[in-house]
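Agenda item 2: magnesium ion complex prediction
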Amino acid sequence: MDISKYRVSNGSDFVLADYATRDRGPYKKKTHALKDQKANTAIIASEQDKMYAQDHWGVIILTQAMDAAGKDGLIKHVLTGVNPLGTQVFSFKQPSAEELDHDYLWRINQRLPERGRIGIFNRSYYEDVLVVKVHNLIASSKLPDQLITDDIWDQRYRQIRDYERYLAENGFIIIKFFLNVSKEEQKERFLSRIDNQSKNWKFSTADVRERGHWDEYMDAYEKAIQNTATEDNPWYILPADRKWYARTLASEIIAKRISALGNKYPDVGEEKLAELEIARQQLEDE
Ligand code: ATP
Ligand code: MG
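Presented output:
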C-alpha cells in the first residue's frame, strides 16, 4: 500500500483541504483490507516483542481528531493482538487542577512509555494548540500575563517540535495520526449515537457545541500540522470516513515504522550459552 500520500513531512506547504476524508486505497473489498490489517497487527506484535527484548527503542502513537472520528475504535482494532504487557494507552482529557498548576508537557512526561513498549496517546499535548487555541483558554490559564503574547502559538509549535526531536534523539519515535473525518460523516455518527440506544452513552451535548467551531478547529489543525510536520516526525492524515480504511492504513504505517527500527532478539554470549547448557544438564539429571 502506498502510505506516502498520507504522510506530511514538510509542513510548510500543507493544505488540509488537499487531503481526502473518504478513500479506499487499493481495496475493492473491505474484507481484503481486514486481512491486511490482521497481518499488520501480527507484524506489530512480533516487532514489539523483539523491541521489548532489546529494550532500546520505545514507540509513541498519538491520535488527534474531531469527536466521533474513530480514535478509540482505531486503537482497539489495530492493537488487539499485541501483547498487553507491551502496550499502554492513555486518554488526555481536560487538565486537572494539579495538571494546570504545571507546564503543559508535565502531564505528558508522566505518561511516556518505557523503552521496549508502545505508548498510545488518545489526544495529546496537541490539545494545547487546538482546543486551547479555539476557545482561547490560554487567557484563563496560569501563565504570567507578560508571557501571553501574539507569539504564543508559534512558541508552542516550536516547543512541540523541540520536544518531539528530543524524544526521537533519545530513542522514542512518535507516530502522529490525524483522523480526517468530514463534517457530514460526523453528523451521521452523532445521529446514530442518538438513535441507537447502545451508543447513547457515547454521545455528549458538548460534542455538538464543539462541532459549532468546526472551521476554527480545521484551521487550528492545519496550522498545527504545518508547524510540526517534519522529516523525522511526520504527521499521517488518515481519511476517516471509512473506519475500516483508516484502521488498515494506520496498521500499515505502524507496522512499517516499527519494523524500520530493526529490532532483533539480543544475541546471547558464550558465557550465557554455557550457563544454559549447565541448566539443561541439571534439569535432565533430576
Ligand atoms: P470520547 O468522547 O470518544 O470518549 P474524547 O477524547 O473525546 O473521547 P472526552 O472526555 O469526550 O474524550 O473529551 C476530552 C476533552 O478534553 C476534549 O474535548 C478535549 O478537547 C479536552 N481536552 C484535552 N486536553 C485539553 C487541554 N489541554 N485543555 C483543555 N481541554 C482539553
Ligand atoms: Mg468526546
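Discussion summary: Strands lie at 7-8, 58-65, 87-91, 118-122, 172-180, 235-239.
Owner for follow-up: CH.
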